[in-house]
Specification:
The structure is a homodimer of 888-residue chains. Chain A contains 34 helices and 33 strands. By secondary structure, chain A is α/β, with parallel strands linked by helices. The two termini of chain A are 38 Å apart.
Chain lengths: 888, 888
């Protein structure tokens, strides 16, 4: 393959800018930008990413002309700093660092102190008056060059160093003298020669060329390739190579090195300068934590001039980058050098405050702030107590991070116990093997929920997310002895009433009370950001809510309707469950109808409350979805109870009655079994009861308030047009009869969830019978990927993420090509048939990346749990701004 | 909506032909054809299907000009037959019958004997000299017209008839005299008047117009609509109305009526004329079975002239239709009338023979025969013993028709018992709640398999289909008491050693030996048909086979390779299962490797045999697919055993050891859990062992025979390109190491199954790492439709089929729009990337409809069980011929 002759391959820092990341890499572009701004950056030049690719593709040889270009730029560098590489009197030392377009921390190679040889090391010693420093630098260089460039086993050098320390009877590297180090240099050179078969190169230019090529090669090492696969970075970008004059913060008390933020990264406050530094130290020392760094304001006392210059520089960088900056600096003999600047990481609180302050201070417009300074995915943290991780002890176990936020409380092993203790004013964590609808009252009463089994779609997780209660599920090492009222986890045992803390954000568990940070429900900065967002977004944001309380809370968070009201959650209350079970156990049509009567009354009251709470806004009610055996006890438990009853001679009538029914309802793969519309077709009376309850409740609200509820009835799990046609006829039949009986009129619509790949493929046929589609992306992900969420998240999915086989959890961020591809097919097919309302009611509706994807498909709304409504509002606005950008 | 003026709406029979089914319906076109051929057809005319649609769309009123056209054609009819409708002396009687393009038996309305009134009935009595006949015809007409046209409850007429018989003290209708019937006519007219509020119409033309409109209306009745939905007949076709002169086979001994086939419909033989007739009877009497009909040759004795004419007519019709015909005829006073002709239904044996004989007799070409006379779906019946349904008793129960064919034998309740009795030379039916790999040796030994649980993908069903053993599964009323060695089903009890018969073709069960028909494995007619097929087909046909015996058998049936060799079936043998379990239970890497060693030896021997049997043909080996818990005992059973051991104090070490592992491996939805490539990634040693066994076996075959096996290694359940990239690297790594060690070379390819919707959506990405794709349409159907086959087939699917919500079982005939749509996406995406071999290895590969669909997508091959290879060869040829037709 021929390389492109005549291409410019090397750029002085002064020739680049922050817009040239593609060619110069992130680091190269940032130092170029600082150089362009006239800031004190150690000088140097960058070999382009394109050169790296040419080198690798051209049989690992340098493209023509590269040598000359490097010579030219090296010459300019030597001239500018007045030092020469390898000069025995006043040598120039350089660093050679990789720097790709996207940050790949630690994945590729670096060589420091390049330019030292047997002669220039003397010059350095003389110039700095510090022979120890000079020989230490030289031995480090040989070691690094040997390892990175010549592939000599670095252990050999380490062993020689250890032997030297033992020989000298000292503990620390710093205790070795200049003479010791000079001797060590000799031994290192011998190691190099023994292993490489040639002398350590004394020609600085040969050192440089070999180091540049070694950085090129490191782009292709296994570690880097694996990282890129994981981080979805393309393999054909290449890395740039930055050759930069070395500066030293360890030349004496006039020197220092440090890191700093332009604003407080936890509060966002722009107050005192924020950062840390060490006098007479190198960058590595700050990171290594051997000495305790000092707070930045102290630097004013040590080196006032350099300090003032640093503060002014940081201010300038923040204004230039229009974002909070994280900088690295070194002061060499009173002279400030800027080594790096980049946008700083920050807490959710800081993120919100900085986004607003930057607008108020006039640095950015509200649109720019929303687009560039707001991280929608951090918003939810503002609404939850968080673990104070810095002050927390080590966790004793970890499981699935099922519902975020942290909680402390007393252990309760049963729902009744939880409820009792909560009534007595205590904070409780409910701990169960897994939860069932029987436990609902205890879950409501608890601050947090901890289970030994189940993933993010377990009963515990779904109920917890819906209530905004922190939860950790699927803690595999958690053993619960309900009888003895003890739990054992991570080798610790605790009993009912002991304190425990769970962190649902990370999935960790602590024995005792770990420290928490309180939430800030009315963060004024967030309110401003939401104001801006609502001006820009096109997507509507609804909520998934099953109770009047949830509905009201979501409305408070800005929800514009209910996109998913799950009627099965109304079946779980302890007052309802006996009737649900009676319905399932009904042997005759009469029994069935009789069991449905009380359920209808319960449901009507529920819907009445929800419709009232959502006055003026649409409410999408999904008819019953889960398989019926979920409302009965576990099959194996029943078998055990019946067997125990037989042996003991004490009959267990309930278990004996339920067992045959549970046996009959058992399914190999309940996810793909008799649920959703299949239930509605099998037991038409059930859906008819629900529709009657919905319509009657709506009529009563209309009468009582004078406002007509906006009712949308949704049929789940449709895969065939005929299912929806049939069920729509049923719904209309019941609704019209109910309205006729009441002498009322009511507008209502009928739609379906799209949650099966077949439904996507035949969306045109199904659209004929639907007023709206709502994408149930949770189940659509399960069926499209063939991932049972309960099984995947506690089994192979973790390994897949770790090995980089998939890049993100597809239940958190929508799989755009697979599941998203089907969503796109639906949009195209359905819109060809009719104008139809399209929304999303899966959990992806509250994930910023997914929300942006849905925006680009032109959907009408997303629906998410109440606590994610604000996140979705912001993400929707960001999507609109980004699209506006792209369309321009 | 305006109707099309100037359109011809009524056709004399003499104006139509067999090509006019769209306009005249099937019946109208056939009588027109017979008329055109100069055959003796009672004359008449047909009102077009388009008129029906116009009537229904035009607010249920006749289109302009219809009255005049009916008058004109009625006039021509009266003139031609020399009788007039309603004539008091010599009345014309007509039938008014529906007749749509596609047969909808019994769905729409018919009126007979139209034209009778108080006067013409006397003319009919005088003319026939048979007043009883005349009045019986009149009362029948009033009843039929009352019911069909005037919507008078037909029960009222039946009750009056019953009252009359009671009054006269007679049992049978035929015992009523002419006077009785005359009186009954009076009563019927009164019933009509009482209910309709007007007199029974005496004007024959009014009778005719009302009857034609009633037939139009019947197109839209619920029964007809439901039928069309089920049979996928469009609703906008309409029905034609045939008005035809009535002829009577019951006017005396010179009259007769009957049905006949041009060839024997069970053997296909063209020997003696084949059919049945009754002298002095009406068509209804033949069907009703009140009198025993005589065999057709006897008609020569009774009515030689009419007989000769009938034989000549049938011969002519067969030549015209170029197919075996099924005719209805009536002889009125020695005069033959042909009432209907259509292609006759026939047995598999008859189908094959007729297809060949028709070619040898020069009626059709081989291509025409293959396309029009061969029913590929019947072919498999030729290879299986069939229940002699005509002579079988009533079944005692029914379940899932899991594997076709019928079998008789002694009941065995355990695999060991089955094996023992089989060794003793007895024929055995294995009866189990459900089967597991532990039962394999017993299944091999049995003639048939019967289970209480499981559908078509249960262990029992899959193994049975693979072995060609008849099986009935999921018989819900079957109770097995293993302890007492009894089964109870349909109120009958049988014990071990009693005889039982199962019919896997229909899913029925019989106590005792039911009569069977033997198979004909070397049917010479079928051989001829297969010869033609192989000339025309483009699709290759492979087989799914897991043993050398299956491979050899399939090769004998014409398989051109193995498209799916399921390695897990090799894990089930009782000599292997302990090693498989040791592998699963392995705690350390050492244990794991140790357990894999014997398995590798077993697998290598298996592959050696298969590669040898398939010399020169490709073999696709699928690496292990099912979740590992399938190889361990059931979770609930283990729990029960452990509990029992605790109570009894007799330790059950095996159960106690296995329970924690089974608990850990348990999955909520195993279909969507840790299986396929996910296993290969979790336990790389497992797939590596399998690849080493494959490569070593292939090398040994190459060495021993001099022929290099064509090895294709297939990775199951891939959904992400990275899964296949990773696993392909592993396969190549192991294979190259094995080849290097042996100093051999071997060409092998690596591909994947497409069985997840995501794999379809990203087929382009996956194709980069694959040499071939094989569509696993069983699992692709499960995931695309969200149907767990085990659950669906024994639960909601039956109801869906019954209610017409879906038209056919998607596991038998591919769902073309949903699953097929995804297959099409794959073809398009993959072919954009590279030329890639595409095949099907799901059960659809043996279903003729599905094979034709795959042909149209341009796939390379289908693979099916050995017993369906011949079916697929024929279907592939038919697809090619049909496509050739369409392309012309």
């Amino acid at each position: 393959m021929s390389t492109k002759a005549g291409t410019k391959r090397v750029y002085d820092f002064a020739e680049g800018s922050r817009d040239m990341r593609d060619l110069l890499g992130g680091k190269g572009a940032n130092v170029a930008e600082m150089t362009r701004l006239g800031l004190p950056v150690p000088q140097g030049f960058t070999v382009t990413t394109a050169t790296c690719i040419d080198y690798l593709e051209n049989d690992h040889t340098n493209p023509e002309g590269l040598d000359d270009e490097v010579s030219e730029h090296l010459g300019r560098l030597e001239e500018a700093v007045g030092k020469t590489l390898g000069d025995p009197d006043n040598p120039l030392l350089v660093s050679v660092r990789s720097g790709a377009k996207f940050s790949m921390p630690g994945m590729m190679d670096t060589v420091l102190n390049l330019g030292l040889n047997d002669k220039s090391v003397e010059g350095l010693a003389a110039r700095t008056g510090n022979p120890r420093f000079a020989y230490d630098s030289y031995r480090r260089f040989i070691q690094m060059f040997g390892d990175v460039v010549a592939e000599v086993d670095r252990d050999l050098f380490e062993k020689a160093l250890t032997a030297m320390k033992k020989d000298r009877g000292v503990e620390q590297d710093v205790d070795l003298t200049a003479d010791d180090l000079k001797e060590l240099v000799g031994r290192f050179k011998q190691i190099y020669k023994d292993n490489k078969g040639e002398d350590f190169p004394q020609d600085p230019r040969a050192q440089l060329d070999a180091s540049i090529n070694a950085v090129f090669e490191s782009w292709d090492n296994k570690r880097a390739r694996d990282y890129r696969r994981m981080a979805r970075i393309p393999h054909d970008l290449g890395t740039a190579v930055n050759v930069q004059q070395m500066v030293f913060g360890n030349t004496g008390s006039g020197s220092a090195t440090g890191v700093a933020f332009t604003r407080d990264n936890t509060t966002g406050e722009k107050g005192e300068p924020f950062g840390e530094f060490l006098v007479n130290a190198q960058g590595e020392d700050v990171v290594a934590g051997i000495r305790t760094p000092e707070q930045l304001p102290k630097l004013r006392d040590h080196l006032p001039e350099a300090y003032d210059k640093l503060i002014a520089t940081m201010d300038m960088l923040e204004k230039t980058y229009r974002n909070m900056q994280d900088v690295e600096f070194t002061i060499e003999d009173g002279q400030l050098y800027m080594l790096q600047t980049r946008n700083g990481k920050r807490s959710a609180q800081a993120m919100a405050r900085i986004a607003v302050d930057m607008v108020d201070e006039g640095h950015v417009t509200a649109e720019e702030s929303l687009r560039d300074l707001v991280d929608a995915s951090q918003v939810r943290q503002l609404l939850l107590p968080q673990l104070d991780a810095a002050n927390a002890p080590d966790p004793v176990a970890s499981g699935v991070a099922a519902s975020p936020g942290a909680a402390c409380g007393l252990i309760a092993f049963t729902a009744d116990e939880a409820e009792e203790r909560a009534r007595a004013g205590e904070k409780v964590i409910l701990v169960r093997d897994e939860t069932t609808p029987d436990d609902f009252h205890g879950m409501v009463a608890s601050e947090g929920i901890l289970t030994a089994r189940g993933g993010k779609t377990s009963h515990a997780a779904i109920v917890a997310v819906g209530m905004g209660t922190p939860a950790v599920t699927g803690v595999s090492g958690l053993h619960i002895d309900e009888h003895e009222k003890t739990l054992t986890v991570g080798g610790r045992t605790a009993t009912a009433g002991d304190h425990i803390t769970i962190d649902g954000t990370t999935g960790t568990v602590f024995i005792g009370d770990a420290p928490l940070l309180p939430p800030d429900p009315h963060n004024p900065y967030l309110e401003r950001i939401l104001e801006w967002s609502d001006k820009h977004r096109r997507l509507q944001v609804r909520t998934n809510a099953d109770t009047p309380e949830d509905a009201a809370r979501a409305r408070d968070f800005g929800a514009e309707g209910i996109g998913l009201c799950r009627t099965e959650h109304m079946f779980g209350g302890e007052d309802r469950l006996p009737h649900v079970r009676a319905m399932i156990m009904a042997e005759t049509h009469e029994d069935l109808v009789a069991s449905l009567h009380p359920l209808r009354e319960f449901q009507e009251e529920d819907f009445y409350g929800i419709f009232k709470a959502m006055e003026g806004l649409p409410v999408t009610v999904r008819l019953l979805d889960p398989p019926l055996h979920e409302f009965l006890p576990d099959y194996t438990d029943l078998r055990m109870r019946v067997a125990a009853a037989q042996i003991s001679g004490r009959p267990d009538e309930e278990a004996e009655e339920q067992l045959p029914k549970v046996e009959k309802l058992q399914e190999v793969n309940p996810m793909l079994g008799t649920r959703g519309v299949r239930l509605g077709i099998e037991i038409p009376e059930l859906y008819r009861m629900q529709v009657a309850a919905i319509i009657n409740a709506a009529c009563r609200v209309k009468k009582d308030t004078g406002h007509e509820p906006i009712v949308e009835i949704m049929i789940p799990l449709v895969g065939f047009d005929e299912e929806l046609r049939f069920m729509r006829d049923e719904v209309v039949d019941v609704a019209e009869a109910a309205l006729k009986e009441r002498g009322e009129t009511l507008h209502y619509t009928v739609g379906t969830m799209i949650e099966l790949p077949r439904a996507a493929m035949v969306a045109d046929e199904i659209a004929h019978h639907a007023d709206f589609f709502s994408f149930g992306t949770n189940d659509l992900t399960q069926t499209t990927l063939g991932f049972s969420r309960d099984d995947a998240e506690t089994k192979f999915l973790a390994q897949y993420l770790e090995q980089g086989i998939i890049q993100s959890n597809p239940f958190e961020h929508i799989d755009q090509k697979g599941v998203g591809g089907l969503v796109k097919i639906v949009c195209d097919l359905a819109r060809d048939v009719k104008k139809i309302k399209l929304g999303v009611c899966g959990e992806h509706g509250g994930d910023p990346d997914s929300v942006k994807f849905f925006h680009t498909l032109g959907l009408d709304y997303v629906s998410c749990s109440p606590f994610r409504v604000q996140t979705a509002r912001i993400a929707a606005a960001q999507a609109a701004l980004e699209q506006g950008e792209n369309d321009r």
